[in-house]
Write a structure and sequence with these properties.
Elements: E1 8-11, H1 21-29, E2 35-38, H2 45-62, E3 66-69, H3 72-78, E4 82-86, H4 87-92, H5 95-99, H6 101-104, E5 107-112, H7 115-123, E6 128-131, H8 148-156, E7 162-165, H9 170-178, E8 183-186, H10 188-191
Parallel strand pairs: 1-2, 1-8, 2-3, 3-4, 4-5, 5-6, 6-7, 7-8
Helix pairs in contact: 1-2
Length: about 190
């Protein structure tokens, strides 16, 4: 992995971890990534919230921001000011709820796959964009990556930081940054380090 961890956002996936998940996250915290998105979509709200509470404590001590993935109510109960949303979740929010996103959250991360997605995300208060899928990846086999030109185009027209996702590794992290991204999102590299 590259030594520029401050430009990497960790996306969690318990299924990729050999051993204890929280111990793995402790290892990851020691390299001080830019942030962590606690994905774990398969957990019930109660299970997710219990895990999030532990991760927020662990990463709070390390000074690393944690974004909860789509669990706005859990984030509010736990006092987490960072949320990550997909475009479908953002689109499905009632107007009233979308209008108060910036009141309820300090940092709003949104997964985007087009300039139209980016425009909606920014209009809704996004403070960062997770842009994908840039390179072909194991978790989305067969889905052709959009490539570095897509990163350049979006970054040239986006007023908030863009983090590329999809097949990002050490070499590709540097490539997407050269194309204008603030950094990249990585899953397997961090879950197996």
């Amino acid at each position: 992995m590259c030594k520029c961890y401050e430009h990497a956002i960790v996306i969690t996936n318990r299924a990729l971890v050999n051993g204890d998940f929280l111990e793995q996250l402790q290892k990851v915290a020691q390299v001080h990534p830019h942030a962590l998105i606690l994905r774990e979509k398969d957990l019930s709200d109660m299970e997710y919230e219990k895990l999030a509470d532990k991760v927020l404590e662990l990463y709070g001590e390390a000074g690393i921001p944690v974004f909860l993935h789509s669990r706005m109510e859990s984030a509010e109960r736990l006092g987490c000011e960072n949320i990550h949303l997909s475009i479908p979740v953002l689109q499905d929010l009632p107007d009233v709820q979308r209008d108060v996103l910036t009141t309820n959250f300090k940092e709003i991360s949104v997964s985007c796959h087009s300039m139209e997605d980016v425009e909606l995300a920014v209009k809704s208060g996004a403070t960062q964009i997770v842009l994908g899928t840039i390179f072909e990846t194991e978790c989305k086999k067969g889905l052709k990556g959009r490539g570095l030109e897509f990163v350049r185009e979006i970054c040239a027209n986006c007023p908030v930081p863009v983090y590329a996702i999809g097949g990002i590794n050490e070499e590709r992290l540097l490539q997407v940054m050269e194309a204008g991204a603030a950094g990249g999102c990585m899953m397997s590299g961090f879950m197996r380090m």
